[in-house]
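quick q for whoever's on today - can somebody do inverse folding on this one?? i tried earlier but teh output was garbage lol. tokens:
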């Protein structure tokens, strides 16, 4: 069943998000303490229309341009890395849900601001039964699951002939359990708990085979011809992660700029940190790193959007490059935050000081298996050297 017509276009979406930034920033410390984004922030993101960016227009969504999506995620992440990461996952999973069979979409998109969590770690098992599958297992890192209405869970279907088939299954959250195990040092406010399935029945129309999807084939009839949904999910994740990383990098620079004008450097004659030459070097280098990350982001977004517009296929080199760019720009933002964080003095160790949280959040993002800079550079290097990438996840 289609949702209501979109009440407002997304032309001013970035401006609407900016109106909520003081609230998001004020709740960042509390989100970390309670290990999930606060209800007030989630409502603000929903009211602004953020969750509609990946939702089909015929359900009241926006199908926002990739550039708009990145700008929005960037703004949120400047205020709170965990809120930006949570928004990134919910926007991304809504996009993925639009690839499912249309019957499943009618169940999921009953409202255009639906909250969806998801995982791509196939640690659960799906056993075929009459009319669908029965799923069992735990799926960790389910960002935003406590506040979601639906969860996209990945599981392996062992066919007995060759490697197992990976499936994405759309399951109402009321049929799943959420384990209280998200107690981490970075992106702590993202609520990325483990979701557990215990003999959960999933009808066949709520199943999306991952392998064909990675090759550009998905079962939705309504959206299969739409260029918006022909953009590769995994490359989109690289772009979404870039928005999160650059936003946090910018937040680190803004926090440093504020601190150096109100503190000195203890045990030196500098009563104001901004007067010290070492600060000038540190600030300039950190700024250059984040600026470089922004340029890399613009390059990968331009590639994805131009391919979507032309319908041209991606080469293996282009796909591997985007993944390498994602890891590289994330590392640049982490290095920038590490640099200004280490120059922020012992007072920055206080939990309420944003800079220490930003440093930890960027470290966490760099540890993500699909963002990891070293792994992504090695993958790109293989392709540049004329070898197979060694993974279908491009």
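ok took a stab at it. sequence:
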């Amino acid at each position: 069943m289609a949702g209501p017509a979109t009440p407002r276009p997304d032309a001013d979406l970035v401006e609407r998000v900016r109106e909520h930034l003081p609230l998001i920033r004020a709740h960042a410390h509390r989100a970390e303490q309670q290990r999930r984004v606060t209800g007030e922030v989630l409502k603000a993101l929903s009211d602004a229309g953020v969750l509609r960016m990946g939702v089909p227009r015929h359900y009241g969504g926006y199908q926002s341009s990739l550039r708009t999506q990145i700008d929005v995620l960037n703004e949120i992440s400047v205020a709170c890395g965990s809120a930006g990461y949570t928004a990134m996952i919910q926007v991304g999973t809504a996009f993925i849900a639009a690839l499912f069979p249309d019957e499943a979409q009618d169940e999921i998109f009953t409202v255009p601001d639906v909250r969806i969590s998801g995982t791509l770690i196939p640690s659960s098992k799906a056993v075929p039964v009459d009319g669908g599958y029965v799923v069992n297992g735990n799926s960790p890192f389910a960002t935003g699951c406590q506040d979601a209405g639906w969860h996209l869970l990945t599981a392996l279907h062992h066919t007995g002939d060759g490697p197992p088939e990976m499936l994405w299954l759309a399951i109402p959250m009321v049929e799943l359990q959420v384990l209280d195990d998200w107690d981490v040092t970075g992106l702590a406010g993202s609520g990325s708990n483990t979701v557990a399935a215990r003999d959960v029945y999933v009808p066949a129309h709520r199943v999306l085979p991952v392998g064909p999807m990675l090759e550009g084939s998905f079962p939705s009839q309504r959206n299969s011809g739409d260029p918006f949904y022909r953009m590769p999910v995994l490359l989109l994740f690289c772009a979404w992660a870039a928005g999160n990383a650059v936003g946090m990098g910018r937040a680190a620079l803004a926090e440093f700029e504020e601190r150096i004008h109100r503190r000195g450097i203890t045990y030196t004659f500098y009563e104001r940190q901004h007067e010290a030459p070492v600060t000038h070097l540190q600030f300039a280098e950190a700024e250059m790193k984040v600026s470089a990350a922004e340029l890399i982001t613009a390059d990968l977004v331009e590639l994805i959007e131009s391919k979507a517009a032309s319908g041209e296929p991606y080469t293996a080199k282009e796909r591997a490059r985007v993944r390498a760019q994602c890891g590289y720009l994330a590392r640049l933002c982490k290095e920038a935050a590490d640099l200004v964080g280490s120059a922020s003095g012992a007072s920055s160790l206080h939990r309420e000081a944003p800079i220490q949280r930003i440093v930890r959040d960027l470290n966490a993002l760099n540890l993500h298996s699909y963002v990891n800079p070293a792994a992504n550079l090695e993958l790109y290097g293989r392709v540049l050297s004329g070898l197979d990438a060694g993974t279908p996840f491009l």
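fwiw The mean pLDDT is 94. also Residues 13-108 form a domain with the Butyryl-Coa Dehydrogenase, subunit A; domain 1 fold (CATH 1.10.540.10). so keep that in mind when u check it
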